[in-house]
Protein backbone atom coordinates (compact mmCIF):
# COMPACT_ATOMS: atom_id res chain seq x y z
CA UNK A 1 0.00 0.00 0.00
CA UNK A 2 2.78 2.42 0.97
CA UNK A 3 4.70 1.58 -2.22
CA UNK A 4 1.61 2.28 -4.31
CA UNK A 5 1.10 5.62 -2.58
CA UNK A 6 4.73 6.53 -3.22
CA UNK A 7 4.34 5.63 -6.89
CA UNK A 8 1.21 7.77 -7.12
CA UNK A 9 3.00 10.62 -5.37
CA UNK A 10 5.92 10.38 -7.80
CA UNK A 11 3.53 10.40 -10.76
CA UNK A 12 1.81 13.49 -9.39
CA UNK A 13 5.20 15.14 -8.77
CA UNK A 14 6.34 14.57 -12.33
CA UNK A 15 2.99 15.75 -13.64
CA UNK A 16 3.47 19.08 -11.89
CA UNK A 17 7.15 19.31 -12.84
CA UNK A 18 6.31 18.74 -16.52
CA UNK A 19 3.65 21.44 -16.30
CA UNK A 20 6.09 23.83 -14.62
CA UNK A 21 8.51 23.27 -17.51
CA UNK A 22 5.76 23.85 -20.08
CA UNK A 23 4.42 26.83 -18.13
CA UNK A 24 7.74 28.67 -17.99
CA UNK A 25 8.74 27.64 -21.53
CA UNK A 26 5.59 29.32 -22.78
CA UNK A 27 6.54 32.32 -20.65
CA UNK A 28 9.96 32.54 -22.31
CA UNK A 29 8.35 32.46 -25.76
CA UNK A 30 5.60 34.88 -24.76
CA UNK A 31 7.98 37.51 -23.37
CA UNK A 32 10.28 37.11 -26.39
CA UNK A 33 7.67 37.87 -29.05
CA UNK A 34 6.69 41.52 -29.42
CA UNK A 35 3.07 40.69 -30.27
CA UNK A 36 2.54 38.71 -27.05
CA UNK A 37 4.84 40.63 -24.72
CA UNK A 38 2.11 42.88 -23.32
CA UNK A 39 -0.20 39.92 -22.75
CA UNK A 40 2.42 38.06 -20.71
CA UNK A 41 3.25 41.22 -18.80
CA UNK A 42 -0.44 41.41 -17.88
CA UNK A 43 -0.39 37.72 -16.86
CA UNK A 44 2.70 38.04 -14.62
CA UNK A 45 0.77 38.80 -11.39
CA UNK A 46 -1.50 35.81 -12.03
CA UNK A 47 1.51 33.55 -12.66
CA UNK A 48 3.12 34.77 -9.43
CA UNK A 49 0.01 33.93 -7.39
CA UNK A 50 -0.46 30.54 -9.11
CA UNK A 51 3.17 29.62 -8.41
CA UNK A 52 2.75 30.37 -4.70
CA UNK A 53 -0.53 28.41 -4.66
CA UNK A 54 1.25 25.40 -6.18
CA UNK A 55 3.89 25.53 -3.45
CA UNK A 56 1.26 25.76 -0.72
CA UNK A 57 -0.59 22.84 -2.32
CA UNK A 58 2.51 20.73 -1.70
CA UNK A 59 2.94 22.02 1.85
CA UNK A 60 0.82 20.20 4.42
CA UNK A 61 1.69 22.77 7.08
CA UNK A 62 0.89 25.83 4.95
CA UNK A 63 -2.03 26.76 7.20
CA UNK A 64 -0.06 26.40 10.45
CA UNK A 65 -0.76 29.43 12.66
CA UNK A 66 2.92 30.24 13.20
CA UNK A 67 3.55 30.17 9.45
CA UNK A 68 0.56 32.38 8.70
CA UNK A 69 1.87 34.97 11.15
CA UNK A 70 5.38 34.70 9.69
CA UNK A 71 4.27 35.08 6.06
CA UNK A 72 1.89 37.92 6.98
CA UNK A 73 4.81 39.70 8.63
CA UNK A 74 6.94 39.23 5.50
CA UNK A 75 4.16 40.55 3.28
CA UNK A 76 3.51 43.69 5.34
CA UNK A 77 7.09 44.53 6.27
CA UNK A 78 8.50 43.92 2.77
CA UNK A 79 5.76 46.07 1.24
CA UNK A 80 6.50 48.93 3.65
CA UNK A 81 10.25 48.60 3.03
CA UNK A 82 9.74 48.60 -0.75
CA UNK A 83 7.36 51.56 -0.47
CA UNK A 84 9.96 53.56 1.45
CA UNK A 85 12.67 52.42 -0.95
CA UNK A 86 10.93 53.33 -4.19
CA UNK A 87 9.70 56.71 -2.91
CA UNK A 88 12.97 57.86 -1.33
CA UNK A 89 15.75 55.96 -3.09
CA UNK A 90 17.47 55.60 0.29
CA UNK A 91 17.30 51.82 0.76
CA UNK A 92 17.89 50.09 -2.58
CA UNK A 93 18.82 53.00 -4.83
CA UNK A 94 16.91 55.04 -7.39
CA UNK A 95 14.33 52.82 -9.13
CA UNK A 96 10.67 52.82 -10.14
CA UNK A 97 8.06 50.14 -10.63
CA UNK A 98 6.34 49.64 -13.96
CA UNK A 99 2.98 47.87 -14.42
CA UNK A 100 4.28 44.28 -14.67
CA UNK A 101 3.38 43.48 -11.05
CA UNK A 102 -0.14 44.85 -11.17
CA UNK A 103 -1.95 47.38 -9.00
CA UNK A 104 0.20 49.86 -7.08
CA UNK A 105 -0.26 51.72 -3.82
CA UNK A 106 2.06 54.70 -3.22
CA UNK A 107 4.05 53.70 -6.33
CA UNK A 108 4.52 50.17 -4.94
CA UNK A 109 2.85 47.02 -6.34
CA UNK A 110 0.67 45.26 -3.79
CA UNK A 111 2.05 41.96 -5.08
CA UNK A 112 5.66 42.81 -4.17
CA UNK A 113 4.97 41.35 -0.73
CA UNK A 114 3.83 38.11 -2.39
CA UNK A 115 7.03 38.10 -4.41
CA UNK A 116 9.09 38.32 -1.21
CA UNK A 117 7.09 35.48 0.35
CA UNK A 118 7.65 33.34 -2.74
CA UNK A 119 11.41 33.87 -2.86
CA UNK A 120 11.89 33.34 0.89
CA UNK A 121 9.69 30.25 0.81
CA UNK A 122 11.55 28.70 -2.13
CA UNK A 123 15.05 29.37 -0.79
CA UNK A 124 14.01 28.01 2.62
CA UNK A 125 13.01 24.69 1.04
CA UNK A 126 16.03 23.82 -1.11
CA UNK A 127 18.65 22.55 1.35
CA UNK A 128 16.37 21.05 3.98
CA UNK A 129 18.33 17.78 4.08
CA UNK A 130 21.38 19.50 5.51
CA UNK A 131 21.95 19.59 9.25
CA UNK A 132 19.58 22.12 10.82
CA UNK A 133 21.73 25.08 11.87
CA UNK A 134 22.24 28.79 11.20
CA UNK A 135 24.36 28.17 8.12
CA UNK A 136 21.93 25.79 6.39
CA UNK A 137 18.82 27.74 7.40
CA UNK A 138 19.98 31.36 7.08
CA UNK A 139 23.33 31.82 5.32
CA UNK A 140 22.78 29.41 2.41
CA UNK A 141 19.15 30.45 1.71
CA UNK A 142 20.21 34.11 1.84
CA UNK A 143 22.98 33.36 -0.65
CA UNK A 144 20.43 31.75 -2.96
CA UNK A 145 18.29 34.88 -2.68
CA UNK A 146 21.20 37.12 -3.64
CA UNK A 147 21.99 34.92 -6.67
CA UNK A 148 18.31 35.04 -7.62
CA UNK A 149 18.24 38.83 -7.32
CA UNK A 150 21.43 39.35 -9.34
CA UNK A 151 19.86 37.49 -12.26
CA UNK A 152 16.32 38.84 -11.81
CA UNK A 153 17.46 42.48 -11.76
CA UNK A 154 18.79 42.14 -15.31
CA UNK A 155 15.49 40.67 -16.57
CA UNK A 156 13.09 42.90 -14.60
CA UNK A 157 13.06 45.91 -17.01
CA UNK A 158 12.31 43.65 -20.02
CA UNK A 159 9.45 42.08 -18.04
CA UNK A 160 8.22 45.58 -17.13
CA UNK A 161 8.47 44.90 -13.41
CA UNK A 162 10.82 47.74 -12.43
CA UNK A 163 13.74 49.72 -13.81
CA UNK A 164 16.71 51.67 -12.48
CA UNK A 165 17.50 55.30 -13.20
CA UNK A 166 21.14 54.35 -13.73
CA UNK A 167 23.12 51.12 -13.34
CA UNK A 168 21.99 48.69 -10.64
CA UNK A 169 23.79 49.93 -7.50
CA UNK A 170 25.73 47.68 -5.13
CA UNK A 171 23.51 49.18 -2.42
CA UNK A 172 20.58 47.18 -3.79
CA UNK A 173 22.32 43.82 -3.35
CA UNK A 174 23.60 44.74 0.11
CA UNK A 175 20.09 45.69 1.20
CA UNK A 176 18.66 42.56 -0.44
CA UNK A 177 21.20 40.40 1.41
CA UNK A 178 20.48 42.13 4.71
CA UNK A 179 16.73 41.56 4.34
CA UNK A 180 17.31 37.94 3.29
CA UNK A 181 19.33 37.28 6.45
CA UNK A 182 16.77 39.17 8.53
CA UNK A 183 13.72 37.23 7.27
CA UNK A 184 15.47 33.85 7.30
CA UNK A 185 16.80 34.51 10.82
CA UNK A 186 13.28 35.13 12.10
CA UNK A 187 12.21 31.81 10.58
CA UNK A 188 15.23 30.01 12.04
CA UNK A 189 14.88 31.35 15.59
CA UNK A 190 11.10 30.82 15.46
CA UNK A 191 11.83 27.20 14.49
CA UNK A 192 9.66 27.32 11.39
CA UNK A 193 10.76 24.51 9.08
CA UNK A 194 9.71 24.72 5.44
CA UNK A 195 10.00 21.65 3.22
CA UNK A 196 8.62 21.51 -0.30
CA UNK A 197 9.70 19.21 -3.14
CA UNK A 198 8.51 21.73 -5.75
CA UNK A 199 10.89 24.45 -4.52
CA UNK A 200 13.90 23.37 -6.59
CA UNK A 201 11.97 22.97 -9.89
CA UNK A 202 10.35 26.39 -9.47
CA UNK A 203 13.60 28.09 -8.42
CA UNK A 204 15.41 26.67 -11.46
CA UNK A 205 12.49 27.41 -13.80
CA UNK A 206 12.43 31.06 -12.75
CA UNK A 207 16.21 31.43 -13.03
CA UNK A 208 16.13 29.91 -16.54
CA UNK A 209 13.24 32.21 -17.49
CA UNK A 210 15.22 35.27 -16.38
CA UNK A 211 18.40 34.11 -18.16
CA UNK A 212 16.59 33.53 -21.45
CA UNK A 213 14.88 36.92 -21.27
CA UNK A 214 18.24 38.58 -20.57
CA UNK A 215 19.86 36.83 -23.54
CA UNK A 216 16.96 37.57 -25.90
CA UNK A 217 16.27 41.16 -24.91
CA UNK A 218 19.86 42.39 -24.52
Task: Please characterize this protein's 3D structure.
There is one protein chain. The longest helix is centred in the N-terminal third of the chain and has 31 residues, at 2-32. A two-stranded antiparallel sheet has the order 1-4. Strands 2-3 form a two-stranded antiparallel ribbon. The chain has one domain (2-217). The chain is mostly helical. Helix 1 runs parallel beside helix 7, helix 3 packs across helix 4 and helix 5 (134-155) packs parallel to helix 7 (199-217). The model is unreliable at 1-8 (pLDDT under 50). The relative contact order is 0.16. It has seven helices and four strands.
Assign an overall shape: globular
Specify the structural class: mainly alpha
Report, as a whole number of angstroms, the end-to-end distance. 53 Å
Tell me about the largest β-sheet: 2 strands, antiparallel
Estimated share of beta-strand residues = under 5%
Tell me the number of strands.
Answer: 4
Q: What helical percentage do the residues reach?
A: over 70%
Indicate how many domains the architecture comprises: 1
Rg for CA atoms: 18 Å
Biggest β-sheet: strands ordered side by side in the sheet: 1-4
- Mean pLDDT, all residues: 88
Secondary structure tally, helices: 7
Run of helices and strands: HHHEEEHHEHH
Q: Segments where pLDDT lies below 50 for 5+ residues?
A: 1-8
Short description, anyone?
With 218 residues, the protein is mainly α.
Key descriptive features of the protein:
single chain, 71% helix, 5% strand, disordered N terminus, two-stranded antiparallel sheet, 218 residues, mainly alpha, globular
